[in-house]
Amino acid sequence: MSIEKLPKIKHTSSNNFFLLAGPCAIEGEDMAMRIAERVVRITEDLKIPYVFKGSFKKANRSRIDSFTGIGDEKALKILKKVSDTFNVPTITDIHEVSDAAKAAEYADVLQIPAFLVRQTDLVVAAAETGKFVNLKKGQFMSPEAMKHAVKKVQDSGNSNAWITDRGTMFGYQDMIVDFRGIPTMRTYAPTVLDVTHSLQQPNQSSGVTGGRPDMIETIARAGVVNNIDGLFMETHFDPANAKSDGANMLHLDHLEGLLKNLVAIKKTVNSL
User: Fold this and answer.
1) Which of 16, 20, 60, 91 shows a CA-CA span of 20 to 30 A to 39?
2) Tens digit of pLDDT for each residue in 25-50?
3) Phi and psi torsions of 261, nearest 5°
4) What are the phi and psi torsion angles at 18 (to 5°)?
């Protein structure tokens, strides 16, 4: 599996799923370091390959007054500090072609947001950095359509692509995970299940996205049972006051218990 080539990744021989986890956005150095320290300890204990996640900026916001970031370079330097301090790889999203080279100086994995995964120039720019590229499946796309996004990365000379499913639109205010798509997408590239974004409830009348964090374990368990390669979760020690996506984030205090349960399920799946 291509994750073994990722710099600083650990526990790749544990037969566990890998984990992409952290806050939605980098709100400051203290919060990023606090979250990273906790998740690193948990994943070390459970031997889970871990990548710290944090967006250096948020471009897809419902309202013009929504939080978008603390400054690109400042946030990217915090990502680099997390990586250097805890010896873990990092992932961050990019939104414009010019973001690719800039973010690649600091992060190990460049993530293409779901709404932008059909943007050829953006995908190619990410691939040409030589970094791992995580392609989020558009909420409007079939699993089969993701083979074309993967091929864009491969045709740009980069073999390190992942696919992340973050649900499919169902009506106007809900997401549904179609688990039939997992084996399909795994034939194209290692596939990740974005547990927390799959539970978003967008297009709320307030202009602030809602969510169903009470269903996080349900979706995560189903992903592990269905042989997902990796899990993606956004977590925060104070979701209610997080500056982005707090409504669907997992409270940091609940992460260890959840991962212990998921590792136990994975061991059972591996034995079948």
Assistant:
1) 60
2) 999 999 999 999 999 999 999 999 99
3) -65, -40
4) -95, 160
DSSP 102-155: HHHTT-SEEEE-GGGTT-HHHHHHHHHTTSEEEEEPPTTS-GGGHHHHHHHHHH
- pLDDT tens per residue across span 74-104: 999 999 999 999 999 999 999 999 999 999 9
C-beta neighbour count of 256 within 10 angstroms: 16
Taken in order of first residue, the domains within the chain and their CATH numbers are 2-271 (3.20.20.70)
| Cβ neighbours, 10 Å, residue 97 | 14
Angle at 54 between CA 51 and CA 56, to 5 degrees: 135
Cβ count near 214 (within 10 Å): 8
Q: What is the pTM of this model?
A: 0.93
Q: Do 79 and 106 meet the contact criterion of CB atoms below 8 Å apart?
A: yes
